[in-house]
Amino acid sequence: MRKFVFSALAAASLALLSVGVAGAKHSTVVLNGAGSTFVQPLVSVWTPALGSAFDYTIQYSGVGSGAGIAAITARTVDFGASDAPMSSDQFTACGGCVQIPWALAGTSIPYNIPGLQLAKGQTTFHLSGDVIAKIYMGTITNWNDPAIAALNKGATIPSLTITPVYRTGNSGTTYNFTDFLSSVSSAWKTQIGQGQSVNWPAGTGASGSSGVTGVVKNTPGALCYVDTGYAIANHLTFASIQNAAGNFVSPSIRNVAAAAATVKSVPTGNELHIVNPPKSAPTAYPIATFTYIILPTHSSNAQALRKMVFWALTQGQAKKYTAALWFAPIPKVVLVASEKTLQQVAST
Amino acid sequence: MEAASVAQPSVFRRTRHVVDRIGDNALFGLSGAAAALALLIIAAIIWKVADGAWPAIRHFGIAFVWHGAWNPVIGREAYGARNFIIGTLVTSFGALLIAAPLSIAIGLFLSELAPPAIRGPIGSLVEMLAAVPSVVVGLWGILVLGPFMRSNIEPFLHDYFGWIPIFGGPPSQSGVLIAIVVLTMMTIPIASSICRELFLGVPRDLKEAAVGLGATRWEMVRHVVVYNVRGGVVAGIILGLGRALGEAIAVTQVIGNSLGPFHISLFKTGNTLASQIAANYQGASTNLQVASLVYLALILLVITFIANLGAQRIVKRFELQRTGGS
Description:
Chain A has 348 residues and is an alpha/beta fold. Helices cover 40% and strands 18% of the residues of chain A. The longest helix of chain A is centred in the N-terminal third of the chain and has 21 residues, at 2-22. Chain B has one domain: MetI-like (MetI-like fold).
């Protein structure tokens, strides 16, 4: 903890120093953030744009959602970021924090099946929530299982042991994934449940998005869950997932936006769940999540934080920033709620 | 100047007198304070860890130690240390089992058998292994050792020794066996350089006497070199064990961090006390989970204390035997 305080002091004095050196002409504000690796690529394309719009410098470190919540709780950063909504213990510990949904993307299911041949006309490998739950529970253990063959009629699937790979430690992506599995499989819901880390009955753990993709790349028969932008950047092939309407859909921007469009109202606390959306959304991708920025209600940088988040919620959602990273624009009803929450952030 | 002071005994005596009064007291005070500080720090660590673990101790009691579940899902939280304790002991003693004979062999080779020209370079290369940061060893474990074990070593062990349950099951690129190999690599430099120094310290007369009595090289090594310093060898290896018990990062990277029961097969994933703490402490979602992780730390602390006390006893016993025998 002392180290954290020390680094915060160092960062603060550095910030002061840079303000001093820059002089009266520039009033560069440095905003320090930490958390979700999921949103990190998006924050890094926002950073130069925010620099030119407001002269803000954002220093963001992707340490994982759980660690981001810990950092903002200790106030070693100006903002935290998490893909999982904060638990009530975390809210209490944070002492005057708000969470604001500020971006939206899907979680893809990449796989490594050498020798897989899809049927003519089939463009993507198909999986359903029920099958994924059974794989992660250890009840489906081979890729040539009849349940998988039934979803991929005409495909040649080799006999190969399945290695499900999960995230070690506390992860927002794990929260999103287990939220989905709890929603589609009652067995999963009663035996395992949802959380930033759960008691995995089968599989192998690896740390961080890079850890799980690394294992999947090197292990024939492996599959994992990771944010779509990361899977694309690492050239992984991912499955199309069956949604409530029975369609097999990819985590494309349009399909994730269709899932988000099912949000009709935002509860107090801004905790949103868009996994396994109802049949009325036929193209909705079933494993998508809002990701949250966590702000203290009292901050010496309150004005800058408000401006930054407002920009991220509005101009930051533009295609030129989000499209290449497979983030979908947040729907209007969420935008309104986010802006309203943002007003609670006041100067000290 | 020194010659002058030696030549004048009266001056010498007077200065010594003053130095005696201040210097001895200062020496006693300073060294005593340093020793007290060490005690104080240990006490403070134990107190702080016990304090942090208190909510979990109150909630689970001592049953935490043998309870097997670790379920961090909010609403059905249940924590127990059994799987991690077993994992810590299996990986550490597994590493010890491989590292001990290797370290003794390396020590012997470098002190007795190797041609003098290559002793230096090989010795420093082995010691350099200790300088590799554990996170780098862990990365190497993920990228090189894991795939190599999965496609070469583990299939071999499975084909020829698969009837032993510990080598049953399909090979995998992260698991207990890989953690054992990583820990072995990290304990060898410490243990082998201690062994070498000990072997070098065995009096030349004894060795020559043994050879003079017609002992072969092997008999000389076994009955004179190793026998004379076995207490020290055990102590050196236990120092290595201390490193293995507490190693977190490199183990986290290769062991697979499973939360389920510890498997009999070493190819399967597992977990240790240190790696579970390292992987989950940051951002634990409930207060009870944080306290339970600190409870694991308390258990780890107790285990390392027991290991150290055990080492001290062993060393003492060997020393008694040695002095009694001679």
